[in-house]
Amino acid sequence: MKNTIYIIVLIIITISCKEENKEIKIDKVQDKENSTNWKVIEKNYAINDVYEIGDVRRYGIIIGENDKIHPYSKKSTIETVLEISSKYKFPILFPEGTYNFGIFIKGLENVEIISKNAKFTGPIYIIDNDSLKKSKDIKVSGVITTYYKVFMRNSKDIEFDKLIITSDISKNSIKSSSMGCDIYAGVDYVYINELEINGVGSSADNHTLTRAALQVHGWNNNPSNLEINKITITNCDRHAIYLTGNNHIINNINIDNYGNGNYNNVSDLEDSEKGDTQKITGLWLNKCNNSSIGSVTINTNDSKGTYSVWLDEGNIGEPTTIEKVTLIGGDKKLPIFANELSNCVIRKVVK
């Protein structure tokens, strides 16, 4: 009787193990099928399959031409490429050249762009979508340039190798000078190795919201955890940098020639007092808490405005430090000014 029971138990265990192994094998086959299926689906979007998966030319984008409606998705081609890249998690390659459109990443995740010195006549947007879904895990490798502007809002985990925003009216999609870099409310964890901004304008038509070459702001939801290794700003019509928010790290700032434009028809910067936006400054820190800035060099010789550095108010319990400020041309024309409620400290000033 006992032998019979043992045999029955052994049979049950054996059958159970076989069923378990069968399920595992099925799962592996299904995973493999899913892996194959996305490549089958991806082929539906391919216009010129001589190019590898991810190369934007494969999907109908032509260097030097405008964006077009994709015949399969019935959406713009660049929007289509961004969406399938996000969904199936493959990187997008932009070969070197000028593209007559912008990049709009809206509510997408896991977008990786490889730029071989690609330049865009339109802006680069990384924002939430109409349903307020945030964009996140966005990585741009290589050198990427826009002749328009960069705007970020309600997004997180963004990375750039080298981001260039420069002016060339002939290459800007609305025939305007550039509008700089605007990092707005709800942005968290941004890393930029090199940021270059050149030729930010001040026209009444296109620049009412362009108060600074780099403006980091957002009422009651200020950006946080911004890390930039090197910033270079040249030929900026208004403020060079307006920085608010928390837990930022900036290693090196070089500012040359700011404040030489038109200050009229300018909207006030968020978190600033009424009228303060008119006090043009090279580096303006306002409600900037628990942050660290390394070396700052400002050329005051060819610049105009009120201050070279403005240390505005902040949380005293969360100080912000600047290791060194060098003023090429001295501080007689453009002094350093500290608000009595400032939480910022400059450790060394060289004039």
| SS summary, helix count | 2
Low-confidence segments: 1-33
Structural class: alpha/beta
Mean pLDDT: 91
Main sheet, how many strands, which sense, barrel? 12 strands, parallel
Order of helices and strands: HHEEEEEEEEEEEEEEEEEEEEE
Number of domains: 1
Q: How much helicity do the residues have?
A: 10-25%
Organism: Aurantibacter aestuarii
Protein name: Pectate lyase superfamily protein domain-containing protein
InterPro entries: Pectin_lyase_fold/virulence
Would you mind describing this structure in some detail?
- There is one protein chain.
- This protein is an alpha/beta fold.
- It has one domain.
- Helix content is 15%, strand content 41%.
- The protein is built from two helices and 21 strands.
- The strands form two sheets. Strands 1, 2, 4, 6, 8, 10, 12, 14, 16, 18, 20 and 21 form a twelve-stranded parallel beta sheet that branches. A nine-stranded parallel beta sheet has the order 3-5-7-9-11-13-15-17-19.
- It is elongated.
